[in-house]
Amino acid sequence: MKEFFHRKIERNAIGFVVAIVAVASIGGFMEIAPLFTIQETVEEVPDMRTYTPLELAGRNIYIREGCYACHSQMIRTLRDEVERYGPYSLAVESKYDHPMLWGSKRTGPDLARLGEKYSDAWHVAHLINPRDVVPESVMPKYGWLMRNELKIDDLGEHIAAQQTVGVPYTQEMVENAVQDARGQATPDTDAAAGVAQRYGDATHVRAFDGDPSRLTEMDALVAYLQILGKLTDKAYQQAATAEVQ
Amino acid sequence: MVSQLTTSERQYALVTLLLLGLGGLAMAAMGRGDPIAVHGYIVLLFAIGLSFVVMAGYYAPEPDKERLSRYYDDPTRVGIVLSIAWAVVGMFVGVWVAALLAWPDLTFDQAWASFGRLRPVHTSGVIFGFGGNALIATSFHVLQRTTRARLPGQFAPWFVLLGYNLFCVVAASGYLIGVTQSKEYAEPEWYADIWLVVVWVTYFLIYLRTLARRKEPHIYVANWYYMAFILVVAMLHIVNNIAVPISWGSAKSYSVYSGVQDAMVQWWYGHNAVAFFLTAGFLGMMYYYMPKRAGRPIFSYRLSIISFWGITFFYMWAGSHHLHYTALPQWVQTLGMTFSVMLLVPSWASAGNALATLNGAWHKVRDDATLRFMMVAAVFYGLSTFEGSFMAIRPVNSLSHYTDWTVGHVHAGALGWVAMITFGSIYALVPWMWKREAMYSPKLIEVHFWLALSGTIVYVFAMWNSGIIQGLMWRTYNESGSLTYSFIDSLVAMHPYYIARAFGGLLFLLGAIVAAYNVWMTIRQSKLEAAQGKEDADIPLFARDAVQAGE
Predict the structure, then answer these.
(1) What is the CATH class of B64-550?
(2) B450 contact A CB<8A
(3) Alpha carbons A93 and A199: distance in angstroms, whole number
(4) Chain B contact for A134, CB < 8 A?
(5) Please, are residues A60 and B35 in contact by the beta-carbon 8 Å criterion?
(6) Burial class of B534 by CB neighbour count within 10 A (0 to 12, 13 to 18, 19+)
(7) Does the ipTM exceed 0.90?
(8) Which chain B residues are closer than 8 Å to A160 by Cβ?
(9) Which of B154, B401, B461, B479 has the fewest Cβ atoms within 10 Å of its own Cβ atom?
């Protein structure tokens, strides 16, 4: 009887290695490579804006504290989710998210459309002790966000690295990153005017933690939470058009 | 252990530790005021500590040439001990984070003690610390036995084992001080990722070089799985972790991928980490230790070929089932679902092959808790792969995704399959490694078995209940056509299940502690006996008789 073909592969270590790599590469290649080349993967939206330095710093705090372990930022195309959280998430909305924070678990609610849903004061109180505003909550307290000064001296490097990975920040934004971070949390100053000029008039400029004299981690995180789902109107426009039809 | 190294290997070790220490010093110097400096000091301390160990044994006499005719098992022994230590730590943190969801104020207002920072310590601790060390330790053991060849050198295996543990320490300590990429199961930052690549390439070269020296013409099936584990994990790790650090003196980096592409790359990684870290590697373990312990050959050679290539090919398509109904294009979701369902074939082929191997040895399964661990592992492997394929079906996923059902599914696999096959293999391996007839206490293995099984069942049932209730509450409408429950209603409903889950986890942790004690006592007995043997040898023959006569 002819020798079973697999007996031959088993005698050749290098051949076996090559076979494993080849067989294992196909699936990933077929699914991932087209996502970078097919135009329809991500919607074209001209008004999509980038995070300000302060919001980016807030996003990094969100990552540091592992918020994504309990909160998703991806509303699925299901009726109950759209009714509970708002229009379903579009690919373009996380286009500048390096990495994305879609999440995989909802121990707490989805946050994709959290922006402007609650006041800054609510967020500050909630983060200091969630059970003060939602008695049944099981979220940890984040009191230290109010105590910690925000580290901003390296924000220029952050924005430059974002530029490198493809986020359309201008050179001016890189150079003014530190000043813009401070300006966004201290309204009615020259620095604040610069933020609006560079990132658009709709940018929130206010003392997010309620204290304009200090720039805390709370300022950054609340600034980030208030922009969630607000970088573009595309999802809302699409929902409105669907309703008319 | 250093005495087993040749002088040149001791020198290699010292040079490597010197370079590592300098690397740590550079990190500490460049990253002043940044968390990377903390890691620099950790690396430096690690290098200094190990240097002392090497230097203490530096002038010991060279090992005899005869060692080359035996297998080299010292790294396996240390790997087993490290694996068990990580199991206790990782599972302890698991019980802690489970308790935090029931009693959220257990954080004492400390940043490091909050759920978001502790959770990756748990996941990395058990997957990479416990699982990874067990895989490295057993792979070195299995590789040598099935090729009838000694590992090519004595330095490289230590580099892999200890280098890997340095990675684990840097990872776990990083989460506590807030260093994370946020990519699930790939949280460590860029410098830890680069270090792991160096370690992993060395691991792969050890494997290839040992295979090249083999005295068996055929490569045994366990080694196919270990090789797939090493190769594909390298592929996944490198592709998913490509990132741009903001500077050489900062721990922070930004992934080159964003949004939908990042989601796909991440879950291609995430799901195949399950496939090739938590499945392929442990199947390698099963294909060696289970037939050995049962004293039966593998039921079907052809079935093992089908399941091996099926797993290697199908799994890589399945990751997108983590992204059903999201902004990921639907054709990718559909492909992911299709391949996930097809995966049931090779998965059940493996589970069936394992269980059929036990035919003719079921009386041993009844009497021997070690073999029973392996049997139950195969059963849970079959159950959780069925559940996985089921949950990947899009409409089922609409209910299960984002809920505790996913957590329950992961733990059915992680506790029921991965941990059980590991404990079974360790109980089989420890007496061989420390030259004992059996473990210190077979009774304690029995106790551990029942703790582990009941813990797993309590955990999984709690999560099934909470997950399905959650999923249903989120989508329940009242008669007027609006949503019946607020989100917080669903959270309140979870409370009893979160307590039950913490209890199930606690049982499993207790089992791991029992295992640690049992292994420790086995090693101690072996050491005591060795010492006694030496004492006896020192007494002249005539005097030995005299002592006996005098009694």
Answers:
(1) mainly alpha
(2) no
(3) 17
(4) yes
(5) no
(6) exposed
(7) yes
(8) 246
(9) B479
